[in-house]
Write a structure and sequence with these properties.
This protein has about 280 residues and is α/β, with parallel strands linked by helices. The strands form two sheets. The chain has a seven-stranded mixed β-sheet with strand order 5-4-3-6-7-9-8, with helices on both faces. Strands 1-2 form a two-stranded antiparallel sheet. It starts with a helix and ends with a strand. Bound molecules: glutamine (GLN). The site of glutamine has 13 residues, from helix 7.
């Protein structure tokens, strides 16, 4: 079958399955399998696709039609210009989270120690280390399977000299030492809200990476309180938050003694990051 025809059939199959952005996903899957780029559909649509690739594409389309996230089929997601490996054991890195990374970056002077609480794929910590010269970092997660993914990403994306470690721990339980920056994108969705999410998220992403308990604030409460023992003087705590959690999280931080607590909006104009320092 020719390339254009493969794409047409893939797109049609995804459309009939009711997949949003069917054309985009059909193209990205085809490019992933054939090792091609957007240009190929525009100018090489009449080239023959090898039978094995055609079969692999059909299988990928079948999976996507079942609402398996695109990133679980390709096994990867771009974040901060880097390609992260992902699987069903980690949250797929979201573009919104890039705001969090951008907010932390200016605070990374030479020798800074960063702790990434609930590191998942490691996307936050690894991006911070990649884009700063001399920072060192620790990623923490409760899930050993998530840490496997984070370690693999760190090994591939960071130079061997970088000081980075990963700790399997229930929040701060096994954490040692003091840090200049603690950053976290914890699970923050209210349990009730999870049911109404897209099937890709609700049925395929790790529940433990989403569920912030009844009011969505469980992890913020614990991290705000427990981080104090692990922050150096003038250390800063950075959170990603849900669009309606800014006041609550700001309040938690102020009550715990954090100063200069600041809310930052994302490109959609929604509250997305809260940070403050401990005097
Ligand atoms: N820190 C990871 C991310 O931002 C995982 C977050 C999570 O599991 N809630 O993608």
């Amino acid at each position: 079958m020719i390339y254009q025809e493969c794409f047409n059939q893939g797109k049609l199959a995804l459309e009939s399955a009711g997949i949003p952005e069917a054309a985009l996903d059909a193209r990205l899957l085809l490019e992933h399998i054939c090792g091609t780029s957007r240009n190929d559909l525009l100018v090489h649509g009449d080239r023959e696709v090898a039978v094995e690739q055609e079969e692999a594409y059909k299988e990928a389309i079948r999976q996507r039609a079942e609402r398996i996230p695109l990133q679980h089929i390709t096994g990867q997601q771009e974040f901060m210009g880097l390609t992260f490996q992902v699987n069903e054991n980690v949250l797929i890195p979201r573009q919104d989270t890039e705001i969090l990374v951008e907010e932390v970056l200016p605070h990374l002077t030479s020798g800074v120690r960063i702790l990434d609480m609930c590191t998942g794929s490691g996307c936050i910590l690894i991006s911070l280390l990649h884009y700063s010269m001399w920072a060192e970092g620790t990623g923490v997660d409760l899930s050993a399977k998530a840490l496997e993914v984070a370690r693999e990403n760190a090994g591939r994306l960071l130079s061997k000299e970088r000081i980075v470690s990963f700790v399997e721990s229930d929040l701060f339980e096994k954490v040692e030492g003091k840090y200049d920056v603690i950053v976290s994108n914890p699970p923050y969705i209210q349990t009730e809200v999870i049911k109404g999410l897209m099937p890709e998220v609700r049925d395929h992403e790790p529940m433990m990476a989403l569920d912030g308990t009844e009011d969505g604030l469980y992890f913020y409460r614990r991290i705000v309180e427990e981080s104090k023992e692990f922050l150096r003087k003038e250390g800063r705590l950075f959170f990603e938050i849900g669009y309606d959690q800014a006041e609550a999280v700001k309040g938690l931080m102020e009550n715990a003694g954090f100063s200069d607590v600041t809310v930052v909006k994302d490109f959609a104009g929604l509250d997305r990051v809260v940070h403050g320092y401990l005097a």
